[in-house]
Give the backbone structure.
Amino acid sequence: MRNFFAILERELKSYFFSPVAYVVLGFFLVITGLFYYNIVNWFDRMSMQSMMMAQQYRQAPQPINVNMMAIRPLFHNIAIIGLFLVPGITMRLFAEEKRQGTMELLATSPLSNWQITLGKFAAALVFYLVMLLTTGVFVGLLFVFGNPEVKPIFTGYLGLLLVGGCFISLGLLFSAFTENQIIAFVGAFAANLAILSLGWLANFVGPNLGAFFTNLSPIEHLDDFAKGIIDTKHLVYYFSFMFGAIFLTFVTVESSRWRGAR
Amino acid sequence: MIQVQNLTRYYGRTPAIENVSFEVEKGEILGFLGPNAAGKTTTMRILTCYMPASSGSAKVAGFDVFNQSLDVRKRIGYLPEQPPLYTDMTVKGYLTFVAKIKGVDPRERKNRVNDVMEKTAIADRQNDVIRKLSKGYKQRVGLAQALVHNPDVLVLDEPTVGLDPNQIIEVRELIKSLAGNHTIILSTHILPEVEMTCQRVVIINRGRVVAQDTIANMTQQKRGLGRLMLQVDGPSAQVRDKLASVHGVKKVQAGGHDRYEIECEAGRDARRELAQAVVQNGWGLLELRAKDKDFTLEEVFLNLTTTENGGANA
């Protein structure tokens, strides 16, 4: 456990003492901000329209749900942005250790490969969490001008964390494959996109196969969380996804100890 | 302390090392010599549990490097050829991290880190980011890293590369001072360094051990060949024939100015017989001395690694 925390702490330091963290965070906030602006703008027009309709027909205005119409699309967008940015967080985790020779230090220290792998995973997850928390500003602003429900926001963030965990575990795996950070980035990005596109594929393959593909995509499982529902089937999906990818990472790292490849 | 038996390691189908065996006693400094690509780094990587051997076994402090790898790794400090530094950390932060993962007791951690920084003379830059340090400093941070958990066994792959002459002497003294408490394997190309620091030497060439002995024995053995220098006042052709006929003389070479260079058979000291032969013929023996000083470790090394090459090619 002490070793796990030593790895975690070092990785976090190297995130926040290097420009990478701030570049990724900055881009993330700019892009999320743009989407947020669009969503709120659209929401604003919708509520104007609804008011005008109400005036026209002399009825009370239809209540518009902030959670459903502003926060849910925002969360969905954050998940998609994560798909692009998470490989940027994970690419260096193993690749850089191999390139600068520090893998030799870790591999000859009394550490288990589980400690190394999980420590790195946890560090990326913490960084991703920090990234998510900064979007709290956007959600907070909605509380100033509207009256959203709190619980779906919490479950939504939980869902985002789980989606991010999947992307991170996959990124970690690709970082373990290579000592080139660019390959790690592109590989993880392509894999994320491929898994996401399974959800789109679902529209074209008929109902039975469609349901199968829909359930494979991490983004599809997010929707219930954003609605405020914590369903165990989604939890099982996310946790098995993460476990699978982390286990493969572990095997990859362990195999280099057996095969002696660099 | 370290037992290596018939260690073999293949990369694909080519062997990097073949049947390498040697032992290191507790507290000893072993010099590990060989030309580039001879298999030094491979052997060291197997000893430090970085990669497995294809066959054979290696034990460090009684633990098998493959089956009891964690026990071995606790007891070993390793400085690879390229020091494994996190260049975005400060010297102190880095060493503290290494102390943690090497399992140094949290209460002693601070002392240990300060201690090794003193020993390797890097304390003055302890709050600097490693990236900004010079090569010499980086190398010493790498050495400090290997020492921080006070390991029983130290494996150093070319520890003085990139240091200036003063620093080389300091590091050499440091390594010497560590012997006794630590068992050290030191690989290097710098032969005088080995002569100055190591008690015993293993010479490896093309993946095989070609010699292993104490430095004294190794250079002595070569002295057994015995090269002598004679200056004789007499008719040179006759003198040469006479000298060549002396029992134990292998080869005579006339060098001009009545000088003759003589190579004796291994293990024979022919000085007495030579002097007798000269005097019996009524010639003047002006000079007779051994040319021993020419046999340095460097000559031994070149001799072993190049003849082996020739042998393998033939």
In short: The interface with chain B takes residues 2-3, 6-7, 9-10, 13-14, 17-18, 100-112, 257-260 of chain A (CB under 8 Å). Chain A has a mean pLDDT of 89. DSSP finds twelve helices and no strands in chain A.
